[in-house]
Structures are given as structure tokens and as C-alpha cells.
């Protein structure tokens, strides 16, 4: 695996050794500046790094320009069909544009876009979608991962010839194995950063699963510089799902990770309620910007999977037969009635957070 | 990747060219036979193939035996610490036992278990958990994927020497990269089928994401013969999450796949509501055992991602500006008012399902 080049989307570095960034897309009308900016601010607070907006017509370009000026994060224009909208978005101050050259048939128009992006330092994401491969590529390579990779490489050469170095590539198919295969093949032959996403992922629940497998398996192999979880759901859900993927892979810390064992016939406490209560508590701490000095918190249902199996956790609670345990790094520090477990953990969280605050400069 | 050997868990084949099977674990008291069987029946109806029950003490063995006799799917005994419980479960008619030799210190006891399993044809899952590696393995290989793999291989040799061929292996760590690395390494050197799972996965939402990445990325590479999604949630949720993983990977068909595009600024219809309504409709069809002759159904939000991008779908609907499209294989078959889209799709589902029923023998 070669390390990718680093590109800059406004102030944000993508690729190279930069952290994997999270992207989402406004579902507001781009023409409605305040609405859009409010949504962008909500997404930023949740952990979103990059925002994309549709530019469906020239009429929204003035509003798009205002959003670019005022957005707290880099703005990307989503362009389809018409190269003049790409020129307009570059002109309006987009940090990046996302185009699918396969649906812009006008080659001289595309050349103008490349030159304008190179001149303005605008990042270009070259999107290749199995659904919009050129007939020539499809004839030569079939509807395959290779056709997607060869398409992307050809478009990247085209943009590079016109002076664009700040390129990203996305390769998508509604088939997960094909999406993963195409991204692996591309990463093996190019140093251009990859934007990972699974197209037409589906509703919040099934789409999150599909995206987790597609994006997660690539990230596990060190492939992917920026991600978007596409869901048929509000963009806030996309950001939450993206954060969960990065968190479970250890790529983004958003407070301590909660680990908990599955329920089974040995469980004698209401583990689901307890784990959910701890999860809520962690979310409240994160939302309030409060830090905890722990990497992992464990909620375990019995002595079998208790302190021993969770010894990687900085702190944890386990329920036994009527009694509860509070443990740190696998060592039991308190035995207490089961009903006091949650309160005891809360007290530890409070104390640890206050100690962290005092230690901070 | 070598193909694994095929083993038989009761009538169910695991490994080789067999479909990937789904496992869950009762959270009932094993001593309560009727309760446990009712939960098993609910899980079976959802798509579960294998059920595991805790055997925490000899007192539950008579009840466990009755459950084995009456269960509509193979039953596995979950054993910890005490080899005599494993002997009791084999005697009671378990199709398989799950043991973690790392937490059974008694080597001669373990040998008795191996001989009893070999004599009874009971499948043995050798569970290796990073949390319960032997001190010797940890000293030699560290707390690493290699230590987990070498532990598993050593235990498998031990069981093989006593005549057990029907072995499965699970390799788990609460770290996802370590879990995936250990399973990949094991699959490269052994033909013993792997049971995939991510330990201490977490609550329903974050646990599903963690399991989807861990289990899904291995399945994508052709690794894994049977899976369990461990959640701190009712086992029904585990089976649903497992089905989703298999479905998005094309490994299990549970009615047509729903694909839908993300919402964006171009969307002029309530795509979330529409996709959710179609998802509910598909769930109702599946629950009623009704078949649809389609692989994919698409719900698209606009003309950009509409019929063209969803041309892999057998049927789909797309919303535009006030008007709706019904399309089949990318070709528009009807233009109709947006408000009639869902009803039109429902009518197509009814007609197609009835035609399927007539065609069935």
C-alpha cells in the first residue's frame, strides 16, 4: 500500500498522514442560505469536517457563494451534467467540486473546468459510478471493478494534464464486493486520495450496515482518506454513523469506547438498560465538551466475562448475583449493591472529568 | 484461501461450500424449558440457524437436554470453567459445545471432553479470546493475533489427537483490527471452519456497526462459515443484524434488496418516508412468506440518480418535480403523480407476488 499524496481542501489536509475526515451533504435547498448554514453548523457540532451542497442550477450560485464564505468547514459543490455549473461553483469560492465526468459529455467543457480548478486551487473529486461508465470503458472492460479503475485513472490523467494536482477519487457501485474491489485496485496503483462511500446505501439501519462493511473493510486495510456514509436519512445520521465507524476502528476518539458483553442465560442484571444508560451518559459528556481520561469503559453482565475479559478497559462495572463490581484495568476496586452500580460509575466519571479539567492548561 | 472442511452440526452443514449460517444465543434461563423454546422458535422464524444456551451449572442439564430434544435447530452448549459441564452437555444431546480451553485449566478434564465429543459426534467450537490467552502463549507471542492463532492451532491439535474432526474455531479480541488479523491468519493456515464474532460489541446501534465491519470485512474476503452478531440487546436484534450483513453481501436472500439514494438538495420528495414505507412493505411480504421475483427494488429521489443509476434494479420508483416515475431495469414504464408512487409500487408487488405463487409448483 503506497501512502497517498496530501491535498488541501481549504485549510483541511486530506490524504498522506492526515486523519480520516468525515463528509456529509446538506439536504436543504442550496438557495436557502440561512437554513443551509444552520444545518452545516449542526453537522459541524456533531463532528463533520467537510460539507457538500447540490448545485442543480446557475440560479443557486449566488447563495452557494455566500455559504462558501460563511461556512465553518470546507464546502464542496455537487455537480451533475453541466460543466458550466462547475465553472460557476469554482468562481463562487467552492473549496472543492465533485463531478462525475461520465455524466458530462462535453470534453472541451470539462477541459475548461480542469483549467479553472487548477487556476483557483480548487480540489476536484473525480466520481466514477458503475452506473455511468462510458460506453467505451464498458465495452473494453465490462461492468467491472477494472472498468471503474481504468475510467478513474483516465479522468485523473486528463485533469493532471491541465494542471490539477489536488484530486480525489471515488469509485462506487451499488454492489459492495465490486465497490471494495475497485477501491483496493485503485489504491494499489495510484497515490490519489480516495473518498470512500457506498452508493444507494439505503435507510438508516440497513444503510449504516452496508456502509460500515464497505467503508470499514477498506479503512481496516489502510485505504481511504475521507468518508461519507450515504443514508436515506437526515445528514445528522450520516455523521453519527461515520463517527461510529471511525471510533470502532480507533481512527477517531469521541470520548471513551463503550464495550459491553452480549446478554446470555448467565446474565442476572438488566444489562441492556445499564449499557444504554452508560452510553447516554457518555453522549452527554461528549456533547458538553467534557473530557474523560479513559479509552474504554466496560459494562459486563457476569463474573465470566467480567473484570478479566474487560481488563483492557480503564474502568468498568459488572453485575453478578445481586452484587455489583466496579473495576479498573481488570482489578476489582469496589463491591457494592447492584442497584448502586450506575451511580458509582457516574461518580467516577464526574471525578475523572474534573481531574482532567484541572490538569488541562 | 483454502476451502474449509465441512462439518455437520446436527443436520446443518457448516464450512466447505455451505451457506454462511447465523447463530444467536438465548437470554432466557436455560432451566426454563418452555420460555427458552419459545425464544428459539421466534429466532428461527427470523432466520436464525443455530442456537446457543448457557450451561452455567449441572442443575440446568436436564432442562438443557429437553431443549436439545425439542429445538427446531441445532443447539450448542456454552461452557465456561468446568469441563464436567461440557461432559454433561454432550451427554444431554448437544449438537455442539463451545468451550474456551483457556479458561479450563484441567488438562485431563479437557481430554475427557475431547474423547466424549469424538464418541458422540458432537461439534466442538474452540474459542480463543485475547482476554484468556494462556500465560505461556502470551509470554511467547505477546498479546497479539499470532498468539491467538497459535493458541487455537494448539488446542485444535489436542482435540484432533483425541479423534475430534468436527471442529470450529473462533478468535476474538475487543480490538477490531486484531480480531480481523487473527481470523485472516488462521484462515491462511487451517481448513477448520471459522465462527466469526466480535466480542463485547456494544449496544444495538454501535455494536451492529462494529460487528458489520469485523464480520463483513472477513466475509468479503471469503473467510467465515458461521456468524454471530453479539449485541447488548435482545437476541432477535442479533439475528436481524446478522441477516442484514449477509443480505448486503449477497450471501443470503431475504426478499429483494432495497436500494435508495441519499437525500440531497436536489430531492423534492419525502424520500426518507417513501423508502421507509417500501422497506416496511418488503418486511410485511417477507414475514408473510410471500415471494417476489426481484433481486433489487430502488427508491430514488430525483432524475439525476433515478432510473439510469438504478438500472440494476428490477423495479423502482423515482420522484421528480411533482411527478413520479415507475421504472423497470432502468426503463421508465409509467409517469404518474408523485402522490401515487407508493400505491403504484404496491400494486406491482401484489401482481408480481401472485404471479410468482401461480408459477410455483
Topology:
The structure is a homodimer of 361-residue chains.
Chain A: E1 7-9, E2 12-14, E3 21-25, H1 33-46, E4 50-54, H2 61-70, E5 75-78, H3 83-91, E6 96-99, H4 107-120, E7 123-129, H5 135-141, H6 145-161, E8 167-172, H7 176-189, E9 195-196, H8 204-220, E10 226-227, H9 235-248, E11 257-260, H10 271-287, E12 296-300, E13 315-319, E14 323-328, E15 331-337, H11 341-359
Parallel strand pairs in A: 3-4, 3-10, 4-5, 5-6, 6-7, 7-8, 9-10, 11-12, 12-13
Antiparallel strand pairs in A: 1-2, 13-14, 14-15
Q: Any idea what the CATH superfamily of the largest domain in chain A is called? A: Dihydropteroate synthase-like
Backbone shape of chain A: elongated
**Secondary-structure element string of chain A:** EEEHEHEHEHEHHEHEHEHEHEEEEH
Radius of gyration of chain A: 24 Å
Uncertain ranges of chain A: none
Largest sheet of chain A: 8 strands, parallel
Q: How would you describe what is shown here?
A:
- Two copies of one chain form a homodimer.
- By secondary structure, chain A is of the alpha/beta class.
- Chain A folds into two domains: 6-248, Dihydropteroate synthase-like (TIM Barrel, Alpha-Beta Barrel), CATH 3.20.20; 257-359, Sulfite Reductase Hemoprotein, domain 1, CATH 3.30.413.
- Helix content of chain A is 42%, strand content 19%.
- Chain A is built from eleven helices and 15 strands.
- In chain A, strands 8-7-6-5-4-3-10-9 form an eight-stranded parallel β-sheet. Chain A has a five-stranded mixed β-sheet with strand order 11-12-13-14-15, covered by helices on one side.
- In chain A, strand 11, helix 10 (271-287) and strand 12 (296-300) form a beta-alpha-beta unit.
- In chain A, helix 7 packs parallel to helix 8 (204-220).
- The longest helix of chain A has 19 residues, at 341-359.
- The radius of gyration of chain A is 24 Å and the shape is elongated.
- The model of chain A has no long low-confidence stretch (mean pLDDT 89).
- At the A-B interface, strand 4, helix 7, helix 8, helix 9 and strand 11 of A face helix 7, helix 8, helix 9, strand 11 and helix 10 of B.
Amino acid at each position: 500500500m503506497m501512502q497517498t499524496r496530501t491535498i488541501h481542501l481549504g485549510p483541511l489536509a486530506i490524504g498522506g498522514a492526515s486523519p480520516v475526515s468525515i463528509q456529509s451533504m446538506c439536504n436543504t435547498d442550496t438557495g436557502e442560505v440561512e437554513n443551509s448554514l444552520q444545518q452545516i453548523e449542526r453537522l459541524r457540532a456533531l463532528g463533520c469536517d467537510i460539507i457538500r451542497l447540490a448545485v442543480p442550477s446557475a440560479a443557486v450560485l449566488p447563495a452557494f457563494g455566500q455559504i462558501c464564505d460563511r461556512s465553518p468547514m470546507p464546502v464542496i459543490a455537487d455537480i451533475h451534467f453541466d460543466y458550466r455549473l462547475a465553472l460557476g461553483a469554482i468562481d463562487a469560492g467552492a473549496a472543492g467540486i465533485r463531478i462525475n465526468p461520465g455524466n458530462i459529455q462535453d470534453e472541451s467543457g470539462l477541459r475548461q473546468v480542469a483549467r479553472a480548478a487548477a487556476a483557483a486551487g480548487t480540489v476536484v473529486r473525480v466520481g466514477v459510478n458503475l452506473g455511468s461508465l462510458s460506453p467505451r470503458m464498458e465495452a473494453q472492460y465490462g461492468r467491472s471493478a477494472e472498468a471503474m479503475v481504468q475510467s478513474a485513472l483516465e479522468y485523473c490523467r486528463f485533469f493532471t494534464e491541465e494542471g490539477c494536482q489536488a484530486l480525489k477519487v471515488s469509485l462506487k457501485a451499488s454492489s459492495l464486493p465490486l465497490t471494495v474491489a475497485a477501491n483496493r485496485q485503485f489504491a494499489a496503483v495510484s497515490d490519489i486520495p480516495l473518498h470512500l462511500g457506498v452508493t444507494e446505501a439505503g435507510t438508516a439501519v440497513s444503510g449504516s450496515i452496508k456502509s460500515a462493511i464497505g467503508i470499514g473493510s477498506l479503512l481496516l486495510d489502510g485505504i481511504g482518506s475521507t468518508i461519507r456514509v450515504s443514508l436515506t436519512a437526515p445528514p445528522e445520521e450520516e455523521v453519527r454513523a461515520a463517527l461510529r465507524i471511525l471510533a470502532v476502528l480507533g481512527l477517531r476518539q469521541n470520548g471513551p469506547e463503550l464495550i459491553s458483553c452480549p446478554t446470555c442465560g448467565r446474565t442476572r442484571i438488566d444489562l441492556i438498560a445499564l449499557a444504554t444508560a452508560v452510553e447516554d451518559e457518555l453522549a452527554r459528556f461528549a456533547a458538553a465538551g467534557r473530557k474523560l481520561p479513559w479509552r474504554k469503559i466496560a459494562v459486563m453482565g457476569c463474573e465470566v466475562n467480567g473484570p478479566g475479559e474487560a481488563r483492557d478497559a480503564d474502568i468498568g462495572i459488572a453485575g453478578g448475583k445481586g452484587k455489583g463490581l466496579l473495576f479498573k484495568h481488570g482489578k476489582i476496586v469496589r463491591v457494592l449493591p447492584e442497584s448502586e452500580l450506575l451511580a458509582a460509575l457516574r461518580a467516577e466519571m464526574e471525578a475523572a472529568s474534573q481531574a482532567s479539567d484541572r490538569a488541562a492548561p
